[in-house]
Design a protein that fits this description.
Alpha-Beta Plaits; about 350 residues; 12 helices; about 20% strand; 12 strands; alpha+beta; four-stranded antiparallel sheet
């Protein structure tokens, strides 16, 4: 007996401990089944991600724009402490140098993007009057070489069309201070608002300038075609587009229908007096066609029986040829030529 056969033979002795290990079954712990989430739980989870803003708290908060990224919470408390008790201070629109890192970590460690020099903030007061006073008095103040834009949080994206100007074709790396220095010759500026991307902080190429008086708008429009950072800009008046009401649209449609009717066949717009004419003309054309058909029947000469038989055979041959072209079967029986 070979050594290989002796190992697997029945006479070989095996340890009892090894037999126990092989005979034992590995029993995995049964995991409890997780119950399916109900509709209410899904709604709660979605509400946590997207918190709804309370209108009462928004009235008590102010928006501060064009802040230097080196500002601290203590600096804002010193400025706004005199207007009333402050509940909270929040910094927003921070762009980290490394996108993978969170914004809060980048702001604390000062690892923000070098091209983004400004940030925004929100300050919440305990009283509504203190927020209004702070927004009116601190707006336009210079802080660390930058003009602050301060307004209520509910009105941070609103501007007065009579006192403001639309700017287009701005360079993407343009700052608020570049626009301030360019339009300060026209008159006192209330604020400058440039539209930027929330994630990258890069400008989108347009913005608004609101002046303290409406007379300065005419002077600002004269700067049409001037350049900021070696790029020509477009300056226009801010005009609110009026939406047509449902009543006006109905009146316009009814007036158009009274004036005329669109003829679909000819693609011409005709009045009611003209629209009656084609109906009469069509009737006349139909009658003419009938007479023409009758005339052609009368003009044709009568054929004899022999000629009719020849014509019928020729037509039959033509039909067979066309049918062969359309359908060619693989069977040999079907492809047999017809003898005439």
């Amino acid at each position: 007996m070979s050594n290989f056969e002796s190992i697997f033979s029945s006479n070989t002795q095996v340890d009892e401990n090894l037999n126990e290990l092989f005979q034992k079954k590995i029993e995995r712990p049964i995991e409890p089944e997780t119950p399916a989430k109900s509709e209410q739980d899904l709604k709660k989870s979605s509400q946590k991600k997207f918190k709804k803003l309370d209108p009462e708290t928004e009235k008590r908060t102010i928006f501060i724009g064009n802040l230097s990224k080196e500002t601290k919470k203590e600096d804002l408390l010193k400025i706004f402490k005199s207007y009333g008790k402050i509940e909270s201070v929040r910094f927003r629109n921070i762009v980290p140098e490394d996108i993978t890192k969170p914004k809060k970590y980048a702001f604390i460690t000062k690892q923000t993007h070098p091209n983004k020099q400004t940030i925004n903030a929100f300050v919440r007061f305990k009283e509504e009057d203190s927020a209004k006073n702070a927004a009116n008095e601190v707006n336009g103040m210079e802080f660390k070489g930058l003009h602050l834009r301060v307004d209520l949080a509910t009105r941070s994206k609103v501007h007065d069309n009579k006192r403001s100007v639309f700017l287009g074709g701005l360079p993407f790396d343009c700052s608020d201070e570049d626009v301030y220095s360019h339009f300060s010759k026209c008159g006192p500026i209330e604020f400058v608002r440039l539209i930027r991307d929330n994630k990258t902080g890069i400008g989108k190429g347009f913005g608004y300038v609101q002046f303290k008086t409406a007379d300065t708008v005419a002077l600002a429009i004269r700067l049409e075609g001037t350049s900021i950072n070696n790029r020509k800009i477009r300056v226009e008046r801010c005009v609110k587009k009026q939406k047509e009401s449902k009543k006006e649209t109905k009146i316009n449609k009814s007036s158009d229908s009274k004036k005329g009717i669109l003829n679909k066949k000819e693609n011409k717009f005709q009045t009611k007096s003209d629209s009656r004419k084609p109906k009469k003309d069509q009737e006349i054309i139909k009658k003419k066609k009938k007479f023409d058909k009758e005339d052609t029947k009368m003009d044709k000469p009568k054929l004899s029986k022999e000629d009719r038989a020849k014509n019928w055979k020729l037509n039959k041959v033509k039909r067979r040829k066309t049918m062969k072209k359309k359908h060619v079967s693989t069977n040999k029986k079907d492809n047999i030529k017809f003898k005439i």
